[in-house]
Amino acid sequence: SLYKLLHEDLGFRPDHLATANVSLPSAVFSTDAQQIAFEHALLERAGSMPGVQSVGVTSLLPVRCNCNTDWVRFVGRPYNGIHNEVNEREVSAGLFRTLEVKLKSGRFFTDADDATKPKVVIVNQAFVQKYFPGEDPIGKKLADTDLKPASFREIVGVVENFKDAGLDEEQWPAEYEPFDQNLNGYLY
Fold first, then answer.
1. What is the pLDDT of residues 90-113, one digit of tens each?
2. Cβ atoms of residues 83 and 145 within 8 Å
């Protein structure tokens, strides 16, 4: 069983990654602008280190848990009151490239996906298989269960599944939001 764990397909290459955990104290980083400035400075400094090819941040590292979830509702579809629970992660524009996660359709985030622009989201294949089977999800909108206008997000990309949860847990649908549009104060 140890051999199987060591050879489990994670959906990304872990052999070239280094990680760190940064928690931004709210007393020092109390505004969105301060958190975003720190994230950009961190990415710039880490990216300029010798040998570094790519950098990214996420609110939760892969191979952790089916947790930090969101309940979503699909704009323009009937709602039956059932909670559609998905993993929710905030990520920087470079995270998928850093993990070498493949883009299946649409686009990756860019630094232009910030708080001044309409909200966007990238979803994984499990999300598409569960909520958009046989459909192209690009351009579709999702929101919170109350359809609050501030919660509307447009699907702009689909990535291959990669292990968000533990190695022995099933692959859940996941949504990835640009860090600059949905801050939470935790960076990996």
1. 999 999 999 999 999 999 999 999
2. yes
